[in-house]
Q: What sequence folds into this?
């Protein structure tokens, strides 16, 4: 088998991992989907990474997924004369919507939409929450805010209003340019940052026009409030715990993570858990026990994928981080308690032949101890439905579409191979068995084959065959 695990690993590309040799090594070590962070780097740099990954794909002989993560609307303080401004606990400072450098007495926040939306009692968090302010009054040209923590305000640091959704587009001009470039390079997934409401997905989806899957990043409290609609309208989600943990009380983050993962699985949408998973490995050669437990918890909760951020982008040990994450996932998936937790989630299957066959494939694989589920698909829909059921075996996906094969790199259990369409029932069985043998399954293994007849027609999953090698 290409992978001896079912959950996937996403790794962020950065200075520590962008060379062609390192990208290939990371794929060999266990990365299934590579994330390009468009908050950093020029188009030429990202383009070179895509080209290197496509070359590695040819050398390795299996599909590699690429995720373009758009920056989204970043709210930052303006410039400050002198470079910084110390504030005392309880001090009241003035903030105005201006791009002129602040003189120390007045802090510039060049985002009028924040000033307009802020209400007395709302909190403003600066620099990932290092400084917390509370709005005490609105003024004709800005607002007054009280410092709830002492600290130092520095220019261009991020600012977050804890309050109502802001009247800002989720897709900025920069994002639109980055998106067009990413699509021109053939990325497989696009992540939209700071989604606040389901309507935020509309413009991006129209611009993608089916050329990539759309990932909604859940990192705003307003997205939590509208999570069912947002998850339903996306192709996948990312539980972005860094920004989510800034705006939500920290004790709520693990609760919302579990809710989101259960919802995503119920709706059949892949889910990534991201941020600070093995953070200490930016410097250290091994993670803390708490970090190992955090990765394991995400797998126990049913995440399709777990993600490395700084660990692989700028860390000193990117391959070690991937290898350790791989080991943690494998250990969880050998625990009988893991499988006991997979079935109780209510899945609300649709009254369709495809859902019935997908549910049956899991039951058959579990009852007979099958070594794999072989799924034929053109669009990936069959593989997604089978994956949602979480069969206790890898899903060997056969598809004639290279784009589909790459996109399935995010989907739990799916190991996709590009192959020609089959034309008959006998050819379906023979090809499925041959592929299972090529993946290393021993003789006398049982496999479940899921397909649709007439063959080669999307949306016709209606056949299940139990076969013994």
A:
């Amino acid at each position: 088998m290409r992978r001896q695990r079912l959950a996937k690993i996403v790794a962020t590309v950065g200075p520590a991992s962008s060379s062609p040799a390192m990208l290939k090594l990371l794929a060999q070590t266990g990365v299934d989907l590579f994330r390009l962070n468009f908050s950093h780097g020029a188009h030429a740099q990202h383009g070179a990474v895509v080209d290197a990954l496509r070359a590695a794909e040819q050398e390795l002989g299996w599909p590699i997924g690429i995720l373009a993560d758009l920056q989204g609307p970043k709210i930052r303080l303006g410039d400050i004369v002198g470079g910084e401004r110390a504030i005392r606990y309880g001090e009241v400072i003035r903030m105005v919507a201006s791009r002129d450098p602040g003189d120390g007495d007045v802090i510039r926040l060049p985002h009028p939409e924040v000033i307009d939306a802020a209400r007395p009692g709302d909190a403003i968090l600066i620099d990932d929450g290092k400084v917390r302010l509370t709005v005490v009054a609105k003024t004709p040209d800005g607002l007054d805010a009280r410092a709830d923590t002492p600290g130092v305000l520095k220019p261009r640091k991020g600012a977050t209003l804890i309050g109502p959704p802001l009247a800002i587009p989720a897709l900025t001009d920069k994002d639109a340019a980055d998106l067009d470039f990413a699509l021109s390079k053939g990325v497989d997934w696009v992540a939209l940052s700071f989604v606040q409401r389901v309507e935020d997905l509309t413009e991006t989806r129209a611009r993608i026009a089916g050329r990539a899957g759309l990932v909604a990043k859940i990192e705003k409290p307003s997205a939590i409030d509208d999570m069912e609609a947002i998850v339903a309208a996306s192709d996948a989600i990312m539980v972005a715990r860094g920004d989510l943990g800034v705006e939500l009380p920290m004790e709520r983050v693990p609760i919302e993570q579990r809710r989101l993962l259960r919802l995503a699985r119920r709706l059949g949408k892949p889910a990534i858990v991201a941020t600070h998973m093995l953070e200490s490995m930016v410097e250290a050669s091994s993670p803390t026990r708490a970090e190992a437990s955090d990765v394991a918890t995400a797998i126990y909760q049913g995440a399709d994928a777990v993600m490395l951020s700084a660990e692989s982008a700028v860390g000193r040990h990117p391959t070690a981080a991937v290898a350790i994450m791989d080991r943690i996932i494998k250990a969880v998936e050998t625990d009988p308690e893991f499988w006991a937790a997979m079935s109780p989630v209510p899945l609300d299957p649709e009254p369709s032949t495809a859902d019935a066959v997908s549910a049956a494939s899991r039951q058959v694989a579990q009852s007979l101890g099958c070594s794999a589920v072989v799924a034929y698909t053109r669009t990936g829909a069959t593989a997604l439905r089978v994956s949602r059921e979480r069969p206790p075996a890898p899903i060997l996906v056969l598809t004639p579409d290279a784009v589909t094969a790459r996109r399935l790199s995010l989907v739990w259990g799916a190991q996709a191979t590009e192959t020609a369409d089959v034309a008959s029932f006998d050819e379906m069985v023979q090809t499925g068995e041959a592929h299972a043998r090529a993946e290393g399954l021993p003789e006398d293994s049982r496999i479940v084959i899921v397909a649709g007849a007439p063959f080669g027609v999307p949306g016709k999953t209606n056949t299940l065959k139990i076969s013994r090698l």
Summary: The two ends are 16 Å apart (CA to CA).
